[in-house]
Amino acid sequence: MSLHAQYLESFLRSQFFMLRMDGPLPLPHRHYIAIMAAARHQCAYLINMHVDEFLQTGGAAEWLTGLERVPRRLRNLNEINKLLAHRPWLLTKDHIQKLVRTGESNWSLPELVHAVVLLAHYHALASFVFGSGINPERGPGAAPGLRLAPRGPFCACDLANDNGVENAALPAGSFGIVGSLSELEALMERMKGLQGGREDEEASQEDLAPRLESEKDGLFVVSGDTFYAFPHSDLEEDVMAASDVSRYVEDPGFGYEDFARRGEEHLHTFRAQDYTWEDQGFSLVNRLYSDIGHLLDEKFRMVCSLTCGPAASREDADSTTLHRALFNYVHCMFGIRYDDYDYGEVSRLLERSLKAYAKTVACYPERTTKRMYDSYWHQFTHSEKVHVNLLLMEARMQAELLYALRAITRHLT
């Protein structure tokens, strides 16, 4: 993240606030919730980090032996942890009511909002960790188990300067760097065409669906009120959960499924204009967990304002349309629809390999491989690809928060 210093500052402020500053939850509980969230995606890097933090803040070591040793109120988070991580559209006010009902294991609403923010944050952060190669993939002959980040002389901070890093000796699990302007120029031309209304491939929504349907590239096609979900064809199917991860997970077989499949009817899409972060989510989360709304809002805005690498040197380079395409594509995969957005922009701006990569990172990050990372934007720098991962991470976090906060709002009304 140090490749994008302004964003990193905003990220660290929000994470420090939710982990360290005054809040409804005790410090050890915050780190244990982070462990539970990271375990849904088998993210050893984050699990190991927060096991240490959990113990340093006074957490009981016996809790680390498994969920059966933690207080019932923490175990009761398993259901919303599972749903938010994989299928947030299934979360309803009934799940909220079960958690806040009277009894010794109940959650207050401020405590629950704090927990939800932590769950969404660490689900999304797992996407960034895997997408950026911080939690490297196992080699073909490696034993099943956690995929621990290598320890050695290489430091991820070395990537902060793209000049000359191409020739650095990177660990086997790390992601490298390439550099050229040709792909950037082509992408900029497409963005300028969209911004100026000069796109040659302009298509109506009616024409768009059949054209994209033939691609079968994992894109959700919007036709009327229906989302069509195409299967992802480039996935690692043999991901194994180690016992060290499974001790923090209930129902490990539960995972992401396409929000809707072709031919299904009566789909309950989340219409973004009915419940937005700006108008409803921000005020609710800020009211129940003071000041976190401002920090999250700053982070969401910051990631969309970034320009990096060669794009930053071009006066006419406006990457707003690209940011919006990535953000809305992730939301689309989680069933959130913007009625005022032309989803044809997604097809025109995001190449097929980038859409496949984005879906993997956002929906099942533990399946991300270096081959997927290398498959898109071959001539772009590592810095620019990290920016993509930041956008995917924040889009995912906001999607989870929207579903959770909407469910809490419905409980309150």
Describe the structure in your own words.
This protein has 413 residues and is an all-alpha fold. The protein folds into two domains: 5-138 and 241-252 and 405-412, AhpD-like, CATH 1.20.1290; 161-238 and 270-398, no CATH class. Helix content is 50%, strand content 2%. The protein has 17 helices and four strands. The chain has helices at residues 5-20, 27-39, 44-56, 72-75, 78-86, 93-100, 109-131, 182-195, 205-213, 243-246, 277-288, 292-305, 320-333, 344-349, 352-363, 370-374, 382-412; strands spanning 221-223, 226-228, 270-271, 336-337. It has a two-stranded antiparallel ribbon with strand order 1-2. A two-stranded parallel sheet has the order 3-4. A hairpin with a 2-residue loop joins strand 1 and strand 2 (226-228). Helix 1 (5-20) runs antiparallel to helix 12 and helix 13 packs across helix 15. The longest helix has 31 residues, at 382-412. It is globular and about 60 Å long. The model is unreliable at 139-181, 198-243 and 308-316 (pLDDT under 50).
Q: What structural class do the secondary elements suggest? A: mainly alpha
- Strand fraction equals under 5%
Order of helices and strands: HHHHHHHHHEEHEHHHEHHHH
- Residue runs with pLDDT of under 50 for 5 or more positions: 139-181, 198-243, 308-316
Question: Mean pLDDT, as a whole number?
Answer: 78
Total strands = 4
Proportion of residues in helical segments: 40-55%
The largest β sheet comes out as: 2 strands, antiparallel
N/C terminus separation:
40 Å
Q: What number of domains?
A: 2
Biggest sheet strand order reads: 1-2
Radius of gyration: 21 Å
Tertiary shape? globular
